[in-house]
Amino acid sequence: MNKIIETLTNNDKFALFTHVSPDGDALGSIFSLALVLESLGKIADVYISGEAPKRLKFMADHYGKEYFTSLPEQKKEYSCCIAVDSGDIARLGIYKEMFEASENTVNIDHHVSNIGYAKENLVYPEASSTGEVLFDIYEKMNIKWTQEIASLVYGSVASDTGSFCFSNTTPKTHAIAGMLIENGADYVFYNKKLFVTNTKSALKAQSYVIDNMKYYFDGKVALVTVDDKVLNKIGATKEDTEGLIDILKSVEDVEIGILLKQVDKNTKVSVRTNFYIDAVKLCSKFGGGGHLRAAGCTLQNTSVKKAKCVILKALEEFF
């Protein structure tokens, strides 16, 4: 960590990146880091593949500054490039080559599958979130906490712990949340936006999952498939499918919840487990990764129908 802090202190112009389809941890991490660096008099440009998801737009609003959603038209010189919450360099999407081209790269993450793809790597798989890793960095740097920074880090931690309900929540996680609240985090607003508020179309997607999930392996696996035809029929978008996986794993006696989602010609597989099955072990069979209880992978050029057969076959060794 000291080496990372030296890098943050000794450089002046940063490019910050996170993974495609950013979640609350990714956005809270990248935006809070940008604000911290700017508070130290640095330049910190934020790059995100596309706009922040609609349901998380409030985090971008809390950041309150411009961020980039495409590659720069002209080459920009940065003294350091930092990737946050991206377990694999490929997950940087359109910014992968831009990151690789930098001589000074930093990787800050908490995914157990992260093998360390930067010049400097700070990966804490035991941390609940990348926000938790950054909290430790900020504290060691003695930063001045603002409501914006504290709220964004709180959003990171709360998002990746499912409002402190997931098994990655530790006593330290709760302690950090308390310190963030003491430092001004708007936790009521963030909890409402992250876990209570729904769009009408998102509710339609949730209703579809409840009505169409199927059970396998004596009810220990709950699975649902979603493709473009379904989304068009119910009047929902791909963004509305975020969080649906948690409905599947919430069913009594279900150990694994699996959501198969069409993304162009590919199928994105999201896996959540409850107690005894390693989600990474399943997803790594298909080049994916993540955490013990939450992982994912993508089956290239595979329909959701075929992907369902492939995944169910792979599950046989677990039961």
What keywords describe this structure?
319 residues, alpha/beta, inorganic pyrophosphatase (n-terminal core), Diaminopimelate Epimerase, Chain A, domain 1, six-stranded mixed beta sheet, 11 strands
Description of the molecule:
The longest helix has 16 residues, at 24-39. The chain has helices at 2-10, 24-39, 57-63, 96-100, 130-140, 147-160, 171-182, 187-196, 200-212, 228-234, 245-249, 279-283, 304-315, and strands at residues 13-17, 43-47, 80-84, 105-109, 120-123, 214-216, 221-226, 256-263, 266-273, 289-290, 294-299. The chain has a six-stranded mixed β-sheet with strand order 6-7-8-9-11-10. It is an alpha/beta fold and 319 residues long. It is built from 13 helices and eleven strands. The chain starts with a helix and ends with a helix. Helix content is 39%, strand content 18%. A hairpin with a 2-residue loop joins strand 8 (256-263) and strand 9 (266-273). Helix 2 runs parallel beside helix 5, helix 2 runs antiparallel to helix 6 (147-160) and helix 6 packs parallel to helix 8 (187-196). It has two domains: 2-196, inorganic pyrophosphatase (n-terminal core), CATH 3.90.1640; 200-318, Diaminopimelate Epimerase, Chain A, domain 1, CATH 3.10.310.
